[in-house]
Amino acid sequence: MTLIACVEDDEKIAANLVLRLREAGHGVVRFASGEEAFRWLRDGNPRPDMLLVDVRLPAMSGIDLLGALGAGRPPTVIISGEASMGETVEAMRLGVHDFLDKPVSRERLLKTVQNCLEHAALRRQVDDLRAREQRILGDSAPTRALLATIAKVAETDARVLVRGESGSGKELVAAALHRLSRRRAGPLVKINCAAIPTHLIEDELFGHARGAFTDAKSAKAGLFEQANGGTLLLDEIGDMDLALQSRLLRVIEDGRVRRVGETAERAVDVRVIAATHRDLEALARGGAF
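Below the sequence we write its predicted structure tokens.
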């Protein structure tokens, strides 16, 4: 039985949604606020197959909830009675599957939910296939030695630096380290430090509070928070700005992250794997790393 988390503060609307979904054979857990849903999802309860979220909620809005949950959240359908253009654009940016306008008809509700679940199932199949395809292949002595090293290091929680030329398979090594580790059930989150402008990497890594800057309409969890319980791959670490390296080092050493615009720190349990094609020792001698 599929499990759907319904986040709706209007008692009458929520009761109707829950009834229709249960009549269709779905399991439903309902929350009256974004905070309640966030705590339930954060605290390790059964992961729902999809989220059905009202965009207008007290305190933590539906958009805030999606931002706080990060990219690893279940597929999501937004319920909207009067969403602004800004809210709609932000929801699309966050990757919601579809929108439902109030009042929600039974037919439209069930069709949208079914489409969302089918799309998610197809996405999982594609991801599984891609994961099976992206394995390190070969039977040469160097490849066997590499695989043996990966297996040995994966058992530890040590931070790892993977070095090699572009296209040599550094990301495959990182994926194998994650897959063979005790963190395999957690997320593997990746960022290419060379592909993102310096002024945006801080926001990507550490996230931001609502109102931290002009376009920060909702809070956002950074990649460290999204990778909590799993592994974070910092690809092309040698291209990271020197000032940002200092902040990154503090997070790695302390296991705590502070979003841009906040004073409070959040504990994170993340294994960091870095990769580069550059000579870090030479960069360090030159004061660039």
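The chain has a mean pLDDT of 88.
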